[in-house]
Amino acid sequence: MSALSREFDVEAIRADFPILTRMLDPDTPLIYLDGGATSQRPRQVIDAEVAYLLHDNAAVKRGAHRMAGLATDAYEGARERIADFIGAPSPDEVVFTKNATEALNLVAYSLGNGDDSTPARLRVREGDEILVTEMEHHANLVPWQELARRTGARLRWIPVTDDFTLDLTDLGTLVTERTKVIAFTHQSNVLGTVNPVAALVEAARAVGALTVLDAAQSAPHMPFDVAALGVDFVALSGHKMLGPTGIGVLWGRYELLAELPPFLTGGSMIEMVHMDRSTFAEPPARFEAGTPPISQAVGLAAACDYLDALGMERIAAHEQALTQQALTGLAAIDGVRIIGPAASPSRAGAVAFDVAGRHPHDVGQVLDSLGIEVRVGHHCAWPLHRRFGVHGTTRASFSVHTTAAEVDAFVHGVAHTIDFFGSLS
Amino acid sequence: MSALSREFDVEAIRADFPILTRMLDPDTPLIYLDGGATSQRPRQVIDAEVAYLLHDNAAVKRGAHRMAGLATDAYEGARERIADFIGAPSPDEVVFTKNATEALNLVAYSLGNGDDSTPARLRVREGDEILVTEMEHHANLVPWQELARRTGARLRWIPVTDDFTLDLTDLGTLVTERTKVIAFTHQSNVLGTVNPVAALVEAARAVGALTVLDAAQSAPHMPFDVAALGVDFVALSGHKMLGPTGIGVLWGRYELLAELPPFLTGGSMIEMVHMDRSTFAEPPARFEAGTPPISQAVGLAAACDYLDALGMERIAAHEQALTQQALTGLAAIDGVRIIGPAASPSRAGAVAFDVAGRHPHDVGQVLDSLGIEVRVGHHCAWPLHRRFGVHGTTRASFSVHTTAAEVDAFVHGVAHTIDFFGSLS
Amino acid sequence: MSNQLSALYTELVIEHDKRPLHAGLREPFDTEVHHVNPTCGDEITLRLRLAEGGERIEDISYDAVGCAMSRAAASMMADLLIGRTIEEVAPAQDHFEAAMRSRGRLEGDEDLIGDSIALLGAAKFPARVKCVLMPWKAYQAALVEARMLGA
Amino acid sequence: MSNQLSALYTELVIEHDKRPLHAGLREPFDTEVHHVNPTCGDEITLRLRLAEGGERIEDISYDAVGCAMSRAAASMMADLLIGRTIEEVAPAQDHFEAAMRSRGRLEGDEDLIGDSIALLGAAKFPARVKCVLMPWKAYQAALVEARMLGA
Ligand SMILES: Cc1ncc(COP(=O)(O)O)c(C=O)c1O
Ligand SMILES: Cc1ncc(COP(=O)(O)O)c(C=O)c1O
Predict the structure, then answer these.
(1) In which element (H, E) is residue B423 found?
(2) Which residue of chain B has the CA closest to A276?
(3) Taking CB atoms and an 8 Å limit, are B271 and C40 in contact across chains?
(4) Residue A100 CA: which ligand 2 atom is closest?
């Protein structure tokens, strides 16, 4: 373990997560290894949201009274905090959505919503191509299928190698002059694979295509900087980064957002409204129709504070160490096949695996009886599972509050599962 | 005052809203008359959300572990609670959105998303007509403008009379065989006018058009029953009914939802996903892409409990009495013109007015200096303001926790405003 | 082995999972349905063959991909239903579904549902209830279709 | 009258609101812009006329619908800018915007911004900051446009 991760005081962190003291059965403490699905919230996040509600709650951007001013400050302050967290050059590039899924749909719909006044770059039409990958979460696949269906564009995808990485061999033919968008995940929620962002950005730039990065799994677990990544749009979820449900983020380059047609329409996103026509506000307001997730933005800002106080480098090191521990442990168990790269640090802390002859539901059930909460199924990445010939997998994912002892318990739990089913007649 | 409202113990209710003890200045208590923009939350709602987060927080509908089961129970239990609150025949007719605006956009987009397999009734196309009213909130106007623009349908609208009601004189010519949708507000957020739902539903049924009711302002303030109303779709916002931001509701008749194409796509709304195509889940899942607002649903269910414990009849009576008090008080002030029907109970508790020669910002500023928080501007109903020749209005709106003394203070505050500006050279 | 697990993975469940009865897709059949559990990707294809003017279940054959619970449920169901009349089995179906959805509050009646009583341990696990009910939902859908064809 | 209100509705503000300077739209002009505050519906149409190769502000004329603050702001701004060079007024513009956005932390420099100093009471009210800055934003936009035309 590195010096960094040795300093990381997991016990002190655990004290911030009251839910971790919960018992599932009288003698079964909770071992929560499903942060990849949704994270738990430290009390700092809950407290920030409650404090806002008890002192400053009001509608934002619509009122002139003092409470509205305080609420707007809280909300816009949260936007600045998140801009800072992801390295956005300006808070005006941060759009609050309800989750990462809406952020991705926003881009997909807006690219289909343009008219002749929309720059060609921001308008997907018949004959255009959209490129995704075979390892996408449904959230970054189905919206593009639907955009293709609505517009007559063609959907193509980058396959995944047997080594669980993107197969860039044919990138030169997959990316063409017709490619308008390359949408891909930063980190697979199943494999743990971290994708080569720079190579894909370069390929996109060469043909003037937009890049859309699904960072729902990466941003909470590693130092993350949109400016350094070079992509055009980024989607995030609050609830995967110690923040509330009901909030997500779309980051986009300002010059693109400035010309992108709106998606959801209604209050607070307009410039002028007549009965028969409307004009729209500048970003980010243009993309935030209706009353936004105000207290949730405050909670998400507190989550950024919390993560930054721990330090993203140290969080990454901590989770890397746990991932390596899990991979090594699982590799020693007969009948376990890891669906993902075998070694950290070329990958991040989601460890999915298959237990020969055992359905993931049954594996998860035995682990659950031990208090170990892992996710089972296709993890919203069905085509990827089909690619590896499995119906589903069992996935453990690690968080800031995960201990080495918990990872040990998990590895033993998997071994126990195999013994358990083996022992049945 | 009726017996009902005499029983209504406002002081006990106020004790449930900790924010009401807040001081704006050392000697200026908060008089919050902006519940029409967003309501405050009783501690019961905050506590329910926090309790969920401390005990049961997990991803819903995606996991098989016990925590996921508890979270799913909490979330689906909230759906049942809300179905019950609005009189929905089945919880499967309740779709959680992020706010009322998304609920309305969901319908507008889905009606444009169909293909040849979609029933004609659920598909808006070139040549079809969409009917709205001149008193709509932008949330129930701009999405229809955009649907019309995307599809080539024609947008028409029902005008508003000088008496602040819908002008149904020409309804016979406004509703035609081409009319696919009639979208209208239950209660104007500016005028307070409650619209004749039955007449509009009848006109729609006669031509087979769908009805979409914006109930963001009505449902929190009167007994509300979707089955009795006879409309096809209803939109609500959590944060206007003592619940959290980040959650709204679309109610729709099951047989319509069952055939309506999806809107947002991604995880949890699919049936099967292949790289090149997907099929979609049954409602309500089909319309809830991605991780939903889980703790917010729990909070909203607690808000329904709270409202039902007070009793919607009694809430309506309480707010009616306050509205009448405000109308009578304002009518006695020279230079104040009420933009809305002059008498309760033909209208509900939003009281908008114009102060001759004074911009609403300046009126609101003086009231704010007295601790009285009212909304100023066009209240996201710009065409309606244009209709009455005003740029903006000042609006007071009343809540369960509003007292007669606060309404008095408000009426005096308006009188004071006129004196104040009169006194300046 | 914990009590919790032993209540779920009973001997009967394991037996049906290992050696499922009536498995495989057979001819002849009146209707065939394909159901998916979208959260885990489990699938069942089920064929229904009716006799006696649509009143008796002559055969149920199926191909099920899923967990031990869902596979056992399919096997137990087929074994319970084949050869009986639709009227006879309706109460079993209602009772089983009610018991599965009761979170363990409703005890099962073995006379009605036979081996399926062994599945009720799953009633406490909402995510597993779906697995267990999937074959029954498929049967129901196949029946509705058969009746529509017959009508 | 509360201190809070007297800090906002100063005599100067009331004076400019009642008798705005340079109001009305005049010819000739180089560029015209129309700005709206979408939250309240306030509007300003502003015309800019430059002289001396685009270096001097020869005229600013405007038509403003808005609250006392925004109307006074337009009047004060026009009076401050007309006749001066763009270079001269740039520091005033920067200083005024910074002070307005400072939530009252930055005291204004009257030598730089003239009568507009009377508007700084609004700096504590975020919603009003927009009202006050709207004419300045309009001037800026008109200037950018004029330069693009000139270039
Ligand atoms: C009548 C009406 N409809 C729709 C809305 C939109 O609600 P939300 O902003 O929560 O989406 C509002 C509130 O602003 C409203 O008053
Ligand atoms: C890689 C990835 N993308 C997108 C999402 C969707 O996030 P959400 O459900 O919060 O919209 C998830 C989480 O489920 C994910 O893991």
Answers:
(1) helix B404-423
(2) B145
(3) no
(4) 11
Task: Inform me whether the pLDDT recorded for B381 exceeds 80.
Answer: yes
For residue B378, give how far its alpha carbon lies from the nearest alpha carbon of chain D (Å): 6
Has this prediction a pTM greater than 0.90? yes
* Nearest beta carbon to residue D127 from set A64, A271, A281: A64
* Distance in angstroms (rounded) separating the CA atoms of residues A376 and C37: 13
D23 bridge partner residues = D62
d(Cα C22, Cα C19) in Å, to the nearest integer? 10
Please say whether the beta carbons of D46 and D142 come within 8 A: yes
Helix (H, G, I), strand (E, B) or coil at A74: helix
B153-195, pLDDT tens digit by residue? 999 999 999 999 999 999 999 999 999 999 999 999 999 999 9
* CA–centroid distance for B409 within its chain: 27
Q: Which ligand is nearest to the CA of A59?
A: 1
- Rounded to the nearest angstrom, the gap between the alpha carbon of residue D55 and the centroid of all alpha carbons in its chain is 19
Q: Give CA–CA dist C74/D52, Å, rounded.
A: 90
A165 lines ligand 2 (CB under 6 A): no
Compute the distance between CA of residue A61 and CA of residue C75 in angstroms, rounded to an integer: 60
- Tell me which long-range contacts B117-121 makes (C-beta under 8 A, separation of at least 24): B118/B259, B118/B261, B119/B259, B121/B180, B121/B208, B121/B210
Ligand number with the minimum distance to the CA of B248: 1
Report long-range pairs for B212-215 (Cβ below 8 Å, ≥24 apart).
B212/B104, B212/B107, B212/B140, B212/B181, B212/B182, B212/B183, B212/B184, B213/B183, B213/B184, B213/B185, B213/B186, B214/B100, B214/B104, B214/B136, B214/B137, B214/B139, B214/B140, B214/B183, B214/B184, B214/B185, B214/B186, B215/B186, B215/B187
User: Best mutation site among B264, B269, B291, B295 for ligand 2, i.e. most ligand atoms within 8 A of its Cβ?
Assistant: B291
d(CA B245, CA B268): 22
Ligand 2 centre distance from Cα of residue A101 (Å): 6
The contacts found for A170-176 with CB under 8 angstroms, 24 or more apart, are A171/A199, A171/A203, A174/A131, A175/A131, A175/A203, A175/A204, A175/A206, A175/A207, A175/A209, A176/A129, A176/A207
Please tell me the distance from the alpha carbon of residue B390 to that of residue B393, in angstroms, as a whole number: 7
A161 sits in which H/E element:
none
Tell me: cis bond preceding B345? Omega within 30 of 0 counts: yes
Q: Encode pLDDT of A268-277 as tens digits.
A: 999 999 999 9
Contact A72 D127 (CB under 8 A): yes
Which of B380, B390, B404, B415 is an active site residue?
B380
Among candidate residues D96, D81, D14, the one with its CA nearest the CA of residue D47: D81
User: Is-cis flag, bond preceding C28, omega within 30?
Assistant: yes
Question: pLDDT digit string (tens) for A21-71?
Answer: 999 999 999 999 999 999 999 999 999 999 999 999 999 987 789 999 999
Identity of the residue in D5, D67, D125 whose CB atom sits nearest the CB atom of B359:
D67
Mean pLDDT within C31-58:
93
Element (H, E) at C9: none
B136: left (phi over 0), alpha (psi -120 to 50) or beta: beta
**How many C-beta atoms lie closer than 10 Å to residue A272's C-beta?**
15
Q: Please indicate if any CB of chain D lies within 8 Å of the CB of A66.
A: yes
Point out the ligand 2 atom lying closest to the alpha carbon of residue A239.
10
H-helix segments, B122-177? 142-151, 171-174
Gap from A68 CA to chain D (nearest CA, Å): 8
**Length of chain B (residues):** 425
Q: Inform me whether the pLDDT recorded for B125 exceeds 50.
A: yes
Catalytic pick among A51, A58, A333, A380: A380
> Is B304 in the active site?
no
Element at A353 (helix H, strand E): strand A350-355
Lowest mean pLDDT among A184-188, B312-316, C7-11, D29-33: C7-11
- For β-strands A129-133 and A154-158, DSSP reports them as parallel
